[in-house]
Amino acid sequence: MNPYAHIISMLSNKKATINVGTKLEVKKMPIDLTLNELFYGALKKINIPKSDGRPQCITSLKISKGLPVNSEIIHNLTDGRTIIFITNDLPHKHFVRKGQDLISTITVTIKEMLYGVQLVVHTLDDKQLRVNITQVITYIRQETDVMVLLIDRPSYQKIIRGEGMPYGENCEKRGDIILQFKIPSSHDQSVINKMICKTPSEMEDFMIL
Q1: How confident is residue 14, by pLDDT bands cut at 50, 70 and 90?
Q2: Are the CB atoms for 181 and 154 separated by under 8 Å?
């Protein structure tokens, strides 16, 4: 008698279920993130709606520092579903993100454009930076001996190095804060016209009250 006969009998009578070619269920979901969440990183609780007979659930998702916009985060749920979260930056009161740089557009008067202004810039990590703008905030195009001020589209910008978004979870490198400028659209056109085609000597004597 085969001493292993009872083992062979047990194995032959046992039904084995093998799932071949099972398709993994994958869904995509947008996720809105604040610049502060992206700056510091976060553990975000997300409500997953019910689908295909699976109940609604809440999951925790790790947000890495400096995550680029439209990043895809693959997350496996305990019920077998796989969710691909696609990130989107929510609007911020002061900044718009471009890569790892933060752009802030500041409204200035014509007088401030010509004679300078002191600004206080609030960073995402709660610093207050005092920035002195001493340069004319306009693009100056030289035409013979006349300077033309294109004050409706100032191109001068101030760059504050290393105060933007982090480049990664364990990276100390950061992007920049870029200050751009504009004047109110309601400015009297006659005042603007007075500033066009001034010679250098005339520009020194010209004062906007």
Answers
A1: very low
A2: yes
Q: How many other C-beta atoms can be found within 10 angstroms of the C-beta atom of residue 154?
A: 18
Phi, psi of 151 (to 5 degrees): -80, -5
> DSSP letters of 123-169?
-TTS-EEEEEE-S--S-EEEETTEEEE-TTS----EEETT-S-BSST
- Whole-angstrom distance, CA of residue 153 vs CA of residue 98: 20
* Cα 174 versus chain centre, distance: 13
Residue 123 DSSP symbol: -
- Are 35 and 7 spatial neighbours (Cβ–Cβ below 8 Å)? no
pTM for this model (two decimals): 0.70
6 SS3 class: helix
Straight-line distance from the first to the last Cα atom of the chain, in angstroms, rounded to the nearest whole number: 114
> What digits encode the pLDDT tens for the residues 49-96?
887 777 888 999 999 999 999 999 999 988 888 999 999 999 999 999
3-state SS assignment for residue 8: helix
